[in-house]
Design a protein that fits this description.
168 residues, mainly alpha, 3-stranded parallel β-sheet, two-stranded antiparallel sheet, 7 helices
């Protein structure tokens, strides 16, 4: 089960970056980021939570490297609020070259960000990724105007528990 989840997640990571980096760069940081993007063996991802997200990406990278030993994943720990701020800044400035190849957003913010900054996201509908591996609800959270702009990272399982004795 874990191996399958990692394989599915890695397929998503490898199939295409969620962000299209384009525009001109200026400054040392932007130049450094642009240089990373020209290395076809390296993808940069912004995500949070070393225990879950970053750990899963590291494990997926290890699996992928067995068949692609030159591949590198540059994981940059970035909290979600900072990701959203940097996305807004890059989009409004017109310099999307500072954005990573991939970023993680939670379901609640994903559609808002795609709707607000559509030029920063890539339509993945025809990317070949198998969305059938995930629940319809989870896939729907990565869609805007019937197009897939994201790849689910998990199945987002949630439960609700009620103390019926109190409710009565």
């Amino acid at each position: 089960m874990k191996k399958r989840l990692l394989a599915v997640m890695l397929t998503g990571v490898m199939s295409m970056g969620l962000l299209a980096g384009c525009g001109s760069s200026s400054g040392k940081d932007a130049e450094s980021e642009a240089t990373k993007k020209t290395d076809s063996n390296t993808l940069t991802v912004w995500c949070w939570d070393p225990t879950y997200n970053m750990n899963a990406l590291n494990k997926a990278t290890e699996i992928y490297q067995k068949e692609h030993p030159d591949f590198k994943l540059d994981i940059v720990e970035t909290d979600e609020q900072t990701i959203m701020t940097k996305l807004a800044t890059a989009s409004t400035s017109g310099d999307t070259s500072v954005l990573p190849d991939i970023l993680l957003l939670n379901d609640a913010n994903f559609q808002l960000e795609v709707g607000s900054y559509p030029d920063c996201f890539t339509d993945l509908t025809d990317s070949g990724f198998n969305y059938d591996e995930f629940s319809e609800g989870k896939v729907a959270m990565s869609m805007v105007d019937d197009k897939n702009y994201g790849i689910p990272f998990d199945n987002g399982t949630a439960i609700a528990c009620y103390r019926t004795d109190i409710l009565e």
